[in-house]
Amino acid sequence: MLQIILKRIAIAIPVILIVASLTFFLVRMAPGGPFDAEKVVPPQVMKNLNAVYNLDAPLIIQYRDYMLNLVQGDFGPSFRYPGRSVTEMIFTGLPVTFELAFYAIIVAMIIGSLAGVIAAVNRNTLLDYVPMTIAMIGICMPTFLLGPLLVLYFGIYLEALPVSGWDSLPGDKILPSITLGAAYAAYIARLSRGGMLETLSQDYIRTARAKGLPEHQVIIKHALQGGLVPVVSFLGPAVAGLIGGSFVVETIFQIPGLGRFYVEAAFNRDYTMILGTTIFFSTLIIFFNLLSDIAVLLMNPRARSQT
Amino acid sequence: MNQESSLWSDAWRRLLANKAAVAGGIILLVLIFLAIFAPWIAPHSYSYQNLELGAQPPSSEFLLGTDTLGRDLFSRILYGARVSLLVGFVATSVALVIGVSWGIVAGYFGGRIDSVMMRIVDVLYGLPFIIFIILLMVIFGRNIWLLFAAIGAVEWLTMARIVRGQVLTVKTQEYVLAAQAMGVSNIQMFRKHIYPNILGPIAVYATLTIPQVMLLEAFLSFLGLGIQPPMSSWGTLIRYGVESMEEYSWLLIYPGLTFTLTLFALNFFGDGLRDALDPKISSD
Lengths: 307, 284
Prior knowledge:
The complex is a heterodimer.
Chain A: H1 2-28, H2 43-52, H3 59-71, H4 86-121, H5 126-140, H6 143-157, H7 174-200, H8 203-210, H9 215-227, H10 229-252, H11 258-268, H12 271-299, H13 301-306
Helix pairs in contact in A: 1-12, 4-5, 4-7, 4-10, 4-11, 4-12, 5-7, 6-7, 6-10, 7-9, 7-10, 8-9, 10-11, 10-12, 11-12
Chain B: H1 2-17, H2 19-36, H3 38-41, H4 73-109, H5 111-125, H6 129-140, H7 144-171, H8 174-181, H9 186-222, H10 234-243, H11 250-277
Helix pairs in contact in B: 1-11, 2-4, 2-11, 4-5, 4-7, 4-9, 6-7, 7-9, 9-10, 9-11, 10-11
């Protein structure tokens, strides 16, 4: 058990290093220097700028310096915003994005697993068809469409909820959280329905029923643990999607989170910011994949012997 | 040969019995038809700007209204269908070529080759590809062909896994072992035995990849990192729809509806195809 976990960690660390190196060289391959877009500057100024940002050193030295700083948590200065470091910008935006993602996951988990379990228990009845049809719509309706539609209806038509900002008006966190969580609620509903159906057909469930346990106890005590394994293994990879979703949701609702910083950096070609956030996001995603792998190992005894 | 054709005709019959899949298929055929013949069907030019006209609500002249630059929305949606569907098919084809070859080589040769190739797939699975695609679009410019290639290069992983699994199963069947014992060459073996057996899962997975690819493209276009004007995909139309939705809600609603309906159709058709080709897999 511990060995498997250690093995996974041993794979994850080189992967993170490879991602960081790959991103570093990709960004350096970008045509033109970072200051080309601005007005023409005297050669001496250019030289000083390059020196400040360590761009005059040979590539391999730049790479070494960058990686050494990286290990210490220093992502270097921002190209676009002089005087601000990428690390500082990441840690300004991160708490907001984390909070948003947290609410979204809570929304998704509660609505999704509830709908999925109800659908599975009432298989092939109206209580199965209606939630599953809504889930299908939820999967086909992209975040960047659902968000604006919610804004249009609740914000502009009903004027019931604020449609932009974060922590500035009461209730301004509701629409973004629902928008980001909706697609996951739909996936979780489908996964938990599938998992529950499979678990409910197992022998140990029949045994539990045979010994006279009431149905709700069978479901809560015995079926849920097995039935929700697919949901837990989905949560790790879902983090990647949540990050992508936060780009969209933070743009729509004008939330000052890391996702919006990233999209802005992509527009402004703030290369160091892109480089830093890419590495940061990648590490986050790899870390959460690892976490959900471990959680699945803990929840499902059979997976331990298989891997 | 007889065996083979009966497998496909059985599947065809099961597919036709599935109403949601048939409805999805019909919607898709109509969309593909509209996209191909857009230049003849579109009532107006997709790029002609009539600033005096401005944004008009839907009318008999402009079926779905016009955008803020006076361009006919219906025509723009038709032309957008071309770009969106093209991205779907081309990027899926890229994924198909890479994934199928990778999976066949790994599954057929097995052993060390297999474990190295699949370990690479495992590692790639853990990478944040959305971020990488954005990175590529930023560095190399927003080029539509690069977009195709980048999306395709991301979506092949699952395909490789599915194909490899299928090849591994087929490889241990008695008739394949018999053929091997008789000294059939690798190429012959592939054409006669492996290929017909992996066709079904590939068709199913390809159909289910197309909506994912289209979503990814629309996501990038929405952020302004995908298709660039004057070309427009459904993602860009939704982006502009959002910008002006407060006054002109039709600019958001019609492109959004079209896009969602298409994804619906593709998903239902794909699910139906899976159930038809592999009755064992279908969960319920």
